[in-house]
Amino acid sequence: MPVYKDEERKTWYFKTRYKDVFGANKQKLQRGFKSKRDAKLAEAEFLTSIENVMSSNSTVTEIFTHNIEYKVYSPKTVSRRKNEYIKHIHPFFGHMKIKDITSNQVIEFQKYLQQNLASAETARTIYSNFKVIINHAIKFFGLRVDPTLKVPPMPRKKTSHNYLRREHFDELVEQLDMNHYKEMTILMFYTGIRVGEALALKWSDVDLFKSELNINKSLDISKRVPGPTKTKSSTAIIPLHNSVLRMLIKLKGICEKKHFGFNEDYYIFGGPSPYHYSHFHKKFKQVFTGIRIHDLRHSYAAHLINNGIDVYLVQQLMRHATISETADTYGHLYTERKHEAMKAFDDTKNEKMVSKRYHRRLK
After folding, report:
1. What are the helix (H) ranges across 154-241?
2. Predicted confidence band at 205 (pLDDT cuts at 50, 70, 90)?
3. What is the mean pLDDT of the chain?
4. β-pair partners for 25
5. Hey, which of 18, 50, 58, 230 would disulfide with 62, CB 3.0 to 4.6 Å?
């Protein structure tokens, strides 16, 4: 590319066009060179640096940094991913060019995670962070060979969930008799929303006429400020049961009388500012011993499945990104109902009589 002389300043400069990592056209102009040769050398160095930054010659650290800056992550996710990278991924791969990583090195990294981390799920999360870097390099940095492709996935340890039956829940929740914790717990049990989503709810998020709830944010519990939902699919409008709708109508009337200057921007649970999570958590554990707050969400899903709701509708109500996420988490509940599903063929009295006679013979 040509360089130019600045007649007024008696110096040289270069001006060049290039495409950034996203394919957008950019222009670079740099002045102040004493000679034409210096300007040409500077231009060549710049173009070489651009090529290296946007190629598989980039290091894992460079690609990780680019991914963090490019993607829209919540502050909590950025902090978590940076900590995971510094502690576990960087010591293994940080200094390496992305194209030099081999499948054997990936296997060794998996072994390290399995041997040095107490939780299998934590190991899977960190490995997932590593795979995000690889996928980002394939998409934007021209990486041609995925070193994780031939490597088996990290083993998944099935986590046990505690499910509350509706009758048991209705009995226990009556003991939460302060600060409208009872109403908040009922809302989570009957909608499956997460505790951060419940704490972030404002009255403007409720449509009392359509009986719907707009989930569009989640509370950062440590800072007590609203932020994005956990995932893109978590942002959704969900239906309300009639009993929950009546509860919210009653609660709104109480809040209108309680708070001077009440408006739709007030938090449903807290007023001008949201409740403290720590205080709610303490009271919840006193009543629901051995139950986690997140188990309310699992109980909601279990109640839907046990009442014959198909997996596709459960996915939508749980706001999962994929059907496989729902199936992986709650598939065992459908398995337990296999024999019950056979009742769909019991459409005649004769079939029912045959079944009864056979069972009598077995006795």
Report:
1. 166-172, 181-191, 195-200
2. very high
3. 87
4. 19
5. 58
Tokens of 199: 């704490």
Q: What is the mean pLDDT of residues 297-302?
A: 95
- Both 236 and 318 in one domain: the answer is yes
pLDDT exceeds 80 at position 348:
no
For residue 209, give both structure tokens.
């006429």
| Spatial distance between the Cα atoms of 99 and 60, rounded to a whole number of angstroms | 9
Shared-domain flag, residues 101 and 181: no
Residue pointed to by tokens 């007649």: 7
Taking a C-beta distance cutoff of 8 angstroms, is the pair 13, 6 a contact?
Answer: yes
* pTM as predicted: 0.64
Q: In terms of domains, do 77 and 211 share one?
A: no
E strand or H helix at 225, and its extent? strand 225-227
Cα(10)–Cα(295) distance, integer angstroms: 73
**Do 199 and 334 have their domain in common?**
yes
Cβ within 8 Å of residue 346, ≥6 positions away: 352, 355
Q: What is the DSSP letter of 242?
A: H
Taking only the tens place, the pLDDT of each residue in 20-46 is: 655 567 788 889 999 988 988 888 887
CATH number at residue 205: 1.10.443.10
At 62, list the tokens.
Answer: 């460079």
Residue recorded with tokens 């963090």: 68
Do 38 and 72 meet the contact criterion of CB atoms below 8 Å apart? no
User: Across the chain, which distance is largest between two alpha carbons, in Å?
Assistant: 109
Q: Is 59 helix (H, G, I), strand (E, B) or coil?
A: strand
Closest CA to 64 of 144, 138, 132: 132
73 & 201 share domain: no
Q: Cα separation of 62 and 23, whole Å?
A: 18
**CA 227 and chain centroid, separation:** 13
